[in-house]
Amino acid sequence: MTVSNDPLVQFQHVQKSYDGEVLVVKDLNLDVERGEFLTMLGPSGSGKTTCLMMLAGFEPATHGEIYLAGKPINKVAPHKRGIGMVFQNYALFPHMSVEENLAFPLQVRNMSRSDQEDRVKKALDMVQLGDFGKRRPAQLSGGQQQRVAVARALVFDPDLVLMDEPLGALDKNLREQMQYEIKHIHERLGVTVVYVTHDQSEALTMSNRIAVFNDGVIQQLAPPADLYERPENAFVAQFIGENNRLAGTVRELNGEHCAVETVDGSIVHALAVNVTKPGESCTLSLRPERVITNPEPGSVNNNFQANVVELIYLGDHIRARMSLCGNDEFIVKVPNSAGKSALQEGASAPIGWLEEDCRALAM
Amino acid sequence: MVASASSIESSSTSGVIVAEDGIPLKAKLARTTRRTRLRALLLTMPLLLFLVITFVIPIGQMLLRSVNHTAVVNVVPNFAVAIQDWDENDSEYPSEELIKIFVQDLARARKVREVGKTVGNLAVRVNYEIPGTASIFKSAARKVGKFEDENYREQLFALHKKWQNPNLWRTLKRISHAYTPSFYVAAIDRQYDEQGNIVKKPEKLSIYVDIFLRTLWLSAVITGICLLLAFPISFLMSVLPLKTSNLLMIMVLLPFWTSLLVRTTAWIAILQSQGVINNILVWLGVFGDESRPQMIYNQTGTIITMVHILLPFMVLPLFSVMKTIPPSYMRAARSMGGSWLYSFYRIYLPQTVPGIAAGTLLVFILAIGYYITPAIVGGQDGLLISNLIAGHMQQSLNWSLAAALGSILLVIVLFLYWLYNKFVGVDNLKFG
Q1: How many distinct structural domains can be found in chain A?
Q2: Mutate to test the interface with B, among A79, A107, A196 (most CBs of B within 10 A)
Q3: N or C: fewer beta carbons within 10 Å in chain A?
């Protein structure tokens, strides 16, 4: 096995508590491969930022060990770890020009003045801010500040860059544009990135793998498509993308499939993800876009009549809220394509879905 | 929409932007905001009046009083005008004619006895210039009524030999103006010699310049100590959780809740030679019972007590600035490889400059004019210039000299403020 195949970062049984009573991070085990873009995704208070801070060295781990390139770093001071970091509010030094900001990590490393200038220029060109070097951070727009922060974290060629919700302060359009830019920079430089966010679309757009955090525990660690298509538990299913949930009890279990009785007594055929025995209560998880209105007879094995409660026109699709299987909040996304028979509020409509699209998850 | 767009275009080409009805936009805006501006003026009016009455006018009066002293002009008005024609290089004494005017003025002043225009006022004024002359004016005033109407000079000179001193008459000529620089001359330890030149006062009579320098030096020392003490505690408060930092803040502000006088006297109890600290030091064997260190009624006492009293004025601006510096700056600097000390020096410290500037300016200006504390604990060598000013206000009643000293102090403070503005920038200050 070559060195490059070793994980760059390893968390081993890491626990963290601030007050000695509550564990913010519970037994974290995580490997980050070299060159990977790994996102820690989760709601606020889920422990993701704490993990990042422990990796950066600003918070000590209460228990366990973190390895960087095979070496334990619990006792290594932050400034000796050689990790680049982008902060939520950029943390650009307000009393220095953009160039001076970028030169800071190079000065610390006693680099010669001409090398410093070369590197600063290269880094600024990388984020298309070549002409802005003399300005103060306050004279830049939010997006420009963001780019400077990224350039500053990369200018000293760290192996690892940490990003702590770096796009949180930007408006929606700029955020999407920056997502692509950061993604492309990552692809071009091959640097390892650990990215923290609570925005799932950001995570899905940029990451090689996503670790979904909740309650101090990684709920699922998987590539974006897997996470969306095959959530392993109810939290992930709910957190990633929109999701319809139906509560029920497992009645039959045969191999990969199962039949679930919902609260109003109807039977739903679903994929058995982690249910183990009949009689177990479970949650059925179903994506709104996988529900078919007016299904061809025989094309799907779940067929229901649902009451249309509300229709919301959203341009490319229509969002229909329906009442079904004892759930008044059942959402169906109907594509706004030509020739589709329109749904009527208050009317009843036939809907259905494939057994494979509906996932039965243990509670 | 199209019409209005074109009108804006046409108006902007002519230079002045006009509103829809042709009135210039600036005038229109001024009209719509007039009410707001009027209200703002009304809201500030009480404070403005208060400041004018209690601050601007007294300061103006003080500045005026430092150069304006009307005793001679008021008491012997005719003589004050006439003596200006006497050339002291020609003759030793003024002419008989002039002395007659002087004697008549003196007699009239004694008869009228108008408040502020008595012979006593004149005597005090001359006494400032030539100490020990007050009595001859008073006794002369009593006797000039009985003078015969000839040979005024002989009769006057016969009263006391001090009248025969040519310097007295030269001085009288010099101070026979409503406006005089002589109080500033005195305030910088200078005096007029017999030829009317400004010369240094003898060493043992020079006090003001030394005390001005001492005031500046002690204020600088107090400010420096305050900064050294306040910086770490402010930093700690800015990084601690709110609950702990609030507690610390209360402890910092606690002295504010106690009377200044009580605090100052408390220091006497603590620092005096039979006081708490000395007793402990003797008990510990650091000093012998006979060689207890003197920590009060001298400069040490002034410095210790004033640092204690002024410390909150340093902590508050520092804390308020440090509170706004997010911890991510230091973290960013450290993640980029700067050691804690280096990051602190390069990143944190420069951002606290507005707080340091505000705190030092505040403490220094407060210290330079401080009165009560040095008066109580300063002894002789811990006195500051404000104590001398108060002395001239209350004991020697030489208000003009007090005003001149006060004006010099004001000029020094303004000069320092100007220096500060030049190097730090006043808009960089941040008080909280």
Answers
A1: 2
A2: A79
A3: N
> Domain check: are A213 and A272 in the same one?
no
B328 and chain A in contact, CB less than 8 A? yes
Structure tokens at B251: 């402890």
Q: Give the closest-approach CA distance of B12 to chain A in angstroms.
A: 29
DSSP readout, A43-88?
-TTSSHHHHHHHHHTSS--SEEEEEETTEE-TTS-GGGS-EEEE-T
Rounded CA separation A294/B284 (Å): 97
Cα dihedral value B188, B193, B198, B202, nearest 10: -40
State how far the Cα of B5 lies from the Cα of A342, in Å rounded to an integer: 43
Contact B328 A104 (CB under 8 A): no
Across A304-313, B62-71, B83-92, the highest mean pLDDT is recorded for B62-71
Q: Which of B335, B342, B424 should one mutate to test binding to chain A, selecting the residue with the greatest count of A CBs within 10 A?
A: B335
- Chain B partners of A58 at a C-beta cutoff of 8 Å? 331, 334
Inter-chain CB proximity A93 and B333 less than 8 Å: yes
We report the CATH number of the domain holding residue A30 as 3.40.50.300
Measured in angstroms, the CA of B343 and the nearest CA of chain A are apart by 9
Minimal-distance CA residue of chain B relative to A59: B331
Question: Which chain B residues contact residue A152 at CB under 8 A?
Answer: 332, 336
pLDDT of residue A339: 61
Residues A209 and A310 in one domain: no
pLDDT tens per residue, range B284-323: 988 888 888 888 899 999 999 999 999 999 999 999 999 9
A194 vs A203: CA distance, rounded Å: 11
CA distance B205 to B189: 8
| Same domain (yes/no): A210, A268 | no
Kindly list the distances between the CA atom of residue B243 and the CA atoms of A281, B237, B432, in Å, as whole numbers in the listed order: 46, 10, 20
Judgement on whether residues A173 and A39 belong to the same structural domain of the protein:
yes
Of B431, B342, B353, B350, nearest to A93 (Cα)?
B350
